[in-house]
User: Fold Multidrug DMT transporter permease from Acidovorax temperans.
Amino acid sequence: MPASPSPLLRWADLALLLVAIVWGTSYGVAKGALAYYPVLGFLAVRFLLTTALLAPVALRGTTAAQRWGALRKGLPLGALLLSIFVCETYGVAHTPASRAAFLISLCVVFTPVAEWALMGQRPSRAVWMCVAVSLCGALLLAGGWQGGWSGGDALMLAAAVLRALMACATARAARHVSPSAAPGAAPVPVLLLTTVQSAVVGLGTLAMGWALLPQGLPPLPTWAAASGFWWATAYLVLGCTVFALVAQNWALKHTSPSRVGLLTGTEPAWGALFAVAWLGESLGPQGWLGGALMVGAALWMARR
Assistant:
């Protein structure tokens, strides 16, 4: 008889489902904000504000060894996160939303493969079954596949691969103890690791904006002229960045990357529900069935 899941595993699964829900809403919210400001500048504002909010709390009571450990682990993870957000944001701008939803959900398939290759942990048959059901649901949600490949499609596919690598890399960083660490040394706090990642994305997109945009970054929109931009930014900073990154980094200490990929892979389904409820978009019977399969597969795996 299989052992009952631990309470921490259940909380980790719940946290990851909440991450998927808030990330699903982020596409519609971000599109509204991008009407006021360029992609790279918007990402810089979002993640630098996140860093400013997290840093005072994250640094309190930490030791020099913990800060060095956070830098050593957080810089490469932050570079991965930077690549993910740049690929996703530009990809959504250059491909239909249905295709973007399908392609980004392929991280559900890539994560068990990456976990097997990078961490030597072979996923169970139940995980592969849930992956197959979730993939079928994503295809139904996307309405099938029509037309050839575009640059936006390639960016979304790259983001899905990077998400799978990110899940494995974060899990390994959260669990790995450096051989050079002193015996009994305190582990790197999750909040401090998240702060370093946010700083890398914020500073990286800021530098890219000034270097790559022909006229550099324009002045920030004012509250009077673009209050919608700042409301959207506040939601994305507090919900989709601070909460989501902290919750995902914490959950990866208590669950496997494959479960993370499966649970957060329901993001397109929640995004579709948000589009119907908030943005007034329509979703046919095929789309509802696809979303139900994705969410059902994730909930079944979480219950197991």
Observations:
- Confidence is low (pLDDT under 50) at residues 176-185.
- The two ends are 12 Å apart (CA to CA).
- The chain has twelve helices and no strands.
